Amino acid sequence: MNFTINKANLEVFSETLQSLAQQDKDIYVVTSDSRGSGKLVPYGQCFPEQIVEVGIAEQNLVGVATGLASMGKKAFAVSPACFLTARALEQIKNDVCYSDNAVKLIGISAGVSYGALGSTHHSLHDYAVLRAINNITIVAPADNYETEEAIRQAAEMTSPVYIRFGKKNMPDSLSGVLEKNSAFKIGKGRIIQEGTDLTFIATGEAVLPCVQAAEVLAQEHGISCTVVSMHTVKPLDSTLIMHIAANGKPIITVEEHSVYGGLGEAVGSLLLQNGFHNQFKIVGLPDDHTVSGSQVEIFEHYGISKKGLSDTVLTWIKN
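Above: the chain sequence. Below: its structure as tokens.
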């Protein structure tokens, strides 16, 4: 697969917001001492009247963003995902979702992006807790293209949305001309490549190792894989998933999240309740005291890597 590793999705997020804010004075950013880590310093320099800093106070962050949204502003609340979806969960549930305020919640340095800082800074719970709350869309873009489209579409949404970003540089487009093959739309999964033997369904930065593993499996073992970027974890694209499952082939979900409550359990529940009996496996972070290290090291430790995923498939098929 030919693609270029370009820049972090967070950088694309900031650039896209700047582009939107040039034309739309209703775009506001609220940060919790996260202007730098959110790549928002250039945005703040360009639009000092459209950025609010609340300090390390995530509950206030969501409250202020809610107030702006209730007045018709397009408010983006930007904070590390681990704190945004834990410390401010009550405000997200009540002020944003229950009260139906169209806040755009941006969880930065998500998953194990803060790897070396340990479990206190890992966000492996965010899909699970937010999936259980009514009236919120959950999105994790896989590459730069999906990021730009997600932000542009989120800016126009009239309901709450949570968008999750890591820190690693990601491909500009996972299949080179991805946007021409399968247009991005929040709520609809995207087929990155089609195969005949099994399917990887992944989200966010976990999509890239699936594409890499699929290439190894095809070239070295003659195993043909479909790869799906299920960028929207909620609402799940049930139509696409059931269409894929109809061939009866194995399905593996891959996510930078606990194996409990995330993409895998959502897909598994959908298949079981609709009478599908495909072989099915969830790859994610186990119920464990997560190891510390870089994101790459943690991914490799838990098998969310080119080698780890290809080995998982080969062992699964052998058994």
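The chain has a mean pLDDT of 93.
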